[in-house]
């Protein structure tokens, strides 16, 4: 659900939208994920999991600039349902996931990639072609 016209983030009941295709697939016990050549926080893949935000609120710094610091930015929503249940998320945009000390753009000190890897299951964050080439179906469950 997108916020009402003229606003950057939804509030109240508008935040609790659970009628997306991903939620329906998960309720049926299906595996869900995506591969994109865009940032994983971009509006196109973000539409699968991000709720109640303007498309430009990809990380906390953008939220502050747009006057929506109180909202969970799109990258942060990767740690919540339904994104927390994805089996695969492949794409760009690592700088929106990492704190500045690690070369990212996050101003809140969070490392979304590392936090995601600590969620349940055997999760692995891949950083380059070599990491991907080292993956086998029997060795990895979540990417």
From TrEMBL:
Enzyme Commission number, as recorded: 3.1.3.1
Top EC class for this record: hydrolase
Keyword flag Magnesium: yes
Cofactor: Mg(2+)
Cofactor binding description: Binds 1 Mg(2+) ion.
UniProt keywords, alphabetically: Magnesium, Metal-binding, Phosphoprotein
InterPro entries documented for this protein: Alkaline_phosphatase, Alkaline_phosphatase_core_sf
Organism the protein comes from: Ancylostoma duodenale
Name of this chain's protein: alkaline phosphatase
Entry keyword annotation includes Phosphoprotein: yes
GO MF terms, alphabetically ordered: alkaline phosphatase activity; metal ion binding
Species lineage: Eukaryota, Metazoa, Ecdysozoa, Nematoda, Chromadorea
Assigned protein family: Belongs to the alkaline phosphatase family.
Entry binding sites for Mg(2+): 42, 44
Matching Gene3D superfamilies: Alkaline Phosphatase, subunit A (3.40.720.10)
């Amino acid at each position: 659900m997108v916020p009402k016209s003229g606003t950057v983030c939804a509030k109240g009941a508008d935040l609790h939208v659970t009628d997306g295709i991903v939620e329906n697939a998960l309720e049926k016990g299906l595996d869900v994920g995506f591969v994109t050549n865009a940032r994983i926080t971009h509006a196109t893949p973000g539409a699968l999991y991000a709720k109640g935000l303007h498309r430009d609120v990809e990380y906390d710094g953008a939220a502050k600039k747009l006057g929506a610091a109180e909202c969970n930015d799109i990258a942060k929503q990767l740690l919540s349902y339904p994104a927390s249940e994805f089996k695969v998320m492949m794409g760009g945009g690592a700088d929106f996931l990492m704190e500045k000390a690690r070369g990212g753009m996050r101003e809140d000190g969070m490392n979304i990639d590392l936090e995601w890897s600590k969620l349940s299951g055997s999760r692995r964050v891949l950083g380059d072609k070599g990491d991907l080439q080292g993956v086998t179906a029997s060795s990895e469950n979540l990417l």
